[in-house]
Specification:
Blueprint: E1 2-10, E2 24-30, E3 36-45, E4 54-59, E5 76-81, H1 89-98
Parallel strand pairs: 3-5
Antiparallel strand pairs: 1-2, 1-4, 2-3, 4-5
């Protein structure tokens, strides 16, 4: 699974008939402190996400396990909108000490 932020939309007037009605969003991967990574992915939105929201993305065969994406040619799906991350204080302190 990937933690990411929706940074844009892909518009496509012609696509496979199995993808008609699917919304494609551009997601930039994030570290656990919400800082951006370099990688991006285009994912089908199955939960009504929008630009600026933090989301979870499943890839590969797992991306075809939602009701919206079942048996469709999809490699990445947004399957959750993140409300909050809880990370232990110990992990944060260790990260500061390492740097």
């Amino acid at each position: 699974m990937i933690l990411g932020k929706v940074i844009g939309t892909v518009w496509s007037t012609k696509k496979d008939e199995n993808l008609v009605g699917a919304k494609f969003l551009i997601v930039q991967e994030l570290n656990l402190d919400y800082s951006p990574k370099k990688n991006t992915v285009v994912a089908v939105d199955s939960v009504g996400a929008g630009v600026g929201e933090v989301v979870l993305v499943a890839q590969g065969s797992s991306a075809r396990q939602t009701i919206l994406t079942k048996n469709k040619p999809i490699d990445a799906v947004i399957m959750a909108i993140v409300d909050k991350l809880d990370i232990s204080v110990k992990d944060k302190i260790e990260k500061v000490v390492e740097n």
